Amino acid sequence: MNFSKLLTDWYLQNKRDLPWRNTTNPYPIWLSEIMLQQTRVAQGMPYFFSFTNAFPTVFDLANANEEQVLKLWQGLGYYSRARNLHQTAQHIANELGGVFPNNYNDLLQLKGIGEYTAAAIASFAYNEVVPVVDGNVFRVLSRYFDIETDIASASAKKEFSAIALELIPKDNPALFNQAIMEFGALQCVPKNPNCSDCIFNQSCAALQKKKVDQLPVKLKKLKISNRFFNYLIFSDDLENTIIQKRTDKGIWHNLYEFPLIETEKEEDFNTLSKLIKTDFQHWNILSIGEENPKSIIHKLSHQHLHIKFWNVKIAGTIPNGINATELKTFPFPIVLHNFIEAK
User: Which stretches make up the HhH-GPD domain (predicted)?
Assistant: First the structure.
């Protein structure tokens, strides 16, 4: 019995019942693939339902404003995914009459859709014979065939795609692609896979050579930078506060935040108090208090944010100040959302 047949038989017996698998409609397939790019299924599922309830069609998503989209996305991270999703929905609705491209090459031209996502939509929605290569697929193939190519290298995608293309049944590529991804997610997991109870335990090269924990090879290490954020929670005579939109490119683009002082290192109360009084000398500051003496460390893929909140009481009223109820309607990074909810 060959690899593909064993794999698809396993899938039909073990697959999870996921809503985007019960359709060939490219819209929910696309939504799910964008959401799950950097997110586990369990975490992504509630967001998928929120989006499909709020925006049942690509036209509904296209007609939403960006803040609505970002608010629903809040907590999923990698917010550029949400902004690209929204812009692509507008392009499909307004330029393509609501009809998704029906092949891999044309899907690849859409904003926010890379090789993996284009292949997923093309095979799942249109049954195009194109291999889907994600982290799960890299792991399954590298172990089964004992491939030591660094999966972070430029040539890896091409090499693994070629192997997957040889294995993929031409009459049902969608089933094979779903199967190999699911096998990597449930059986051939990154750490401590249960190889004794695996359909490939007689034929997996890595298992025979005792190399399962060494594969796949990934040599490139992300360089992590540390940043120090001091958020100022202003409060006036009406208990109103002030927020601002992050318009610079980079993390959290177009999300909201409190006024921010970023420092080179973690600063003490005296230093921060002076900075606040200097930067906001146009307001009559009555008191400054440290909300959390110990920084909250918020880890992103390439940077660690050390976050402190400072309560700043001012005399008078803030022009266009925002009350506590209004505050909760804006899209914030999840670390700020959690802070607001806990207040």
Answer: 35-186
Query: Contact at 8 Å (CB) between 210 and 166?
Result: no
Per-residue DSSP letter, 250: S
Angle at 92 between CA 48 and CA 86, to 5 degrees: 45
pLDDT digits (tens, 9 = 90+) for 50-96: 999 999 999 999 999 999 999 999 999 999 999 999 999 999 999 99
Q: Are 106 and 279 in contact (CB under 8 A)?
A: no
Asked whether the bond before 216 is cis by omega within 30 degrees of 0, the reply is yes
- What is the SS3 assignment for 156? helix
Which regions of the chain carry the CATH code 3.90.79.10? 225-342
pLDDT in tens, 121-144: 999 999 999 999 999 999 999 999
Q: Tokens representing 295?
A: 């920084």
CATH 1.10.340.30 maps onto the chain at: 3-214
Selecting among 33, 159, 262, 264, the annotated active-site residue is: 33
Q: How far apart are the first and last CA of the chain?
A: 60
Residue 33 annotated as catalytic: yes
Q: For the domain 3-214, what is the CATH superfamily, name and number?
A: Hypothetical protein; domain 2 (1.10.340.30)
Q: Does CATH place domain 225-342 in 3.90.79.10?
A: yes
Residue 230 and residue 308 in contact, taking contact as beta carbons nearer than 8 Å:
yes
Encoded tokens for 212: 């399962």
DSSP type of residue 30: H
- Would you place residue 1 in the very low, low, confident or very high pLDDT band (cuts 50, 70, 90)? low
